[in-house]
Amino acid sequence: MTLAAHDHPTGQRPLTIASVPSGHVYVRHLSPVSGPAPTRLPDPDPTRPSTAATGAWWPPVMLDPDWARGAEFDLFHLHFGFDACSPAQLRRLVAVLRERGKPLVFTVHDLRNPHHEDRRAHDEQLDVLVPAADALVTLTPGAAREIEERWGRSADVVPHPHVVDLETLAAAEDSVPRAPRRSFRVGVHVKSLRASMDPLRILPVLVETVAELDGAVLQVNGHRDVLEHGGARHDEPLADYLREQHDRGALELFVHDYFSDAGLWDYLGSLDVSVLPYRFGTHSGWLEACRDLQTTVIAPTCGYFADQGPVLGYVHDEDAFDPASLRDAVVRAHEERPALGATLEERLEQRARIAASHDSIYRSLLRP
Q: In terms of Cα–Cα distance, which of 354, 271, 281 is closest to 31?
């Protein structure tokens, strides 16, 4: 007998999960493509907490201890969004969950917050959440080892699911091998310039390396708030350098607002290589989206990016940068055109395993 979308095996009732956040693509893809799935409460609207959010979910209302005290759910699963929470607020949230007998699952996405220059605030938050969680999940073996070393806790390793929708992913896979292009396109995206990024450290190497490769183009994209005068996070040295290099033909510069999902997938799919300019961090959804779209990722050695899936690596962290390693990675990508992307079949199988892993974790905590 085939199970309908909301049917569950005998003895297993549907679960209601308070996921923080609920609407993020990562969380949405924790459920199976079809078949039984938990009910995840919608993110409350931060301006009208009694209604479901239709757009912005931050700051997450679910992290308010008063919300956790009154809402109906079986289990609380925290992913991210707690940046603005003090350790005291997180302790109050944990206390409410304890009082109500509601298990807390915490997926450790970031062991170092990519938005924070100073790591202390995030470390203090983790020092509350990691010891308090009834179950811990993380995305890579390397992150699990660090959690064990820092807190003496074991975390289930459940990989990052696909980011790109399955239809677009399938179309990207079908386009490989791609028709010959006029150029080999190496991309760097400075976005809104997170604290973890150091593009000026790596860009001169990329400019020099790409100039020496036949048919290669270096493309840099960034948001207006960073690269235009008057922007809220304007970085004058970076903006000046990029415009100077663009004017002399060393790179192509595109300054724009945030992409829609469809626009972002079109952009990433147009690249042969995406270079991550991070000097610290832990995991990357950007990396997963590139793999979905068959775009090779060149990732730094900081964090656990290389644990997520096949990438080309270069030495880059807060203390060190090896220009030769970045040059070698770009040259290898140009010469070998490695096929490091994820196939539709792989992503579907992975998503089924991810959903089963989460269901097992949830039900193990809710046994009478």
A: 354
pLDDT score at 12: 74
- In angstroms, rounded to a whole number, what is the distance separating the alpha carbons of residues 243 and 22? 40
Is residue 167 within 8 A of residue 252, CB to CB? The reply is: no
- The gap from C-alpha 172 to its chain's centroid, in whole angstroms, comes to 20
- Please tell me whether residue 308 adopts helix, strand or coil conformation: helix
CA pair distance 50, 327, nearest whole angstrom: 53
Report pLDDT for 1: 22
Query: 3-state class of 198 per DSSP?
Result: coil
Across the range 107-120, mean pLDDT stands at: 97
Phi, psi of 191 (to 5 degrees): 45, -130
pLDDT of 367 over the 90 cut: no
Structure tokens of 86?
A: 């003090």
Distance CA 329, CA 281 (A): 20
* Amino acid identity at 132: A
For the chain, domains (ranges, CATH) are 16-162+347-365 (3.40.50), 166-341 (3.40.50.2000)
User: What does pTM read for this prediction?
Assistant: 0.94
d(CA 297, CA 272): 9
Pairing of strands 184-191, 273-275: parallel
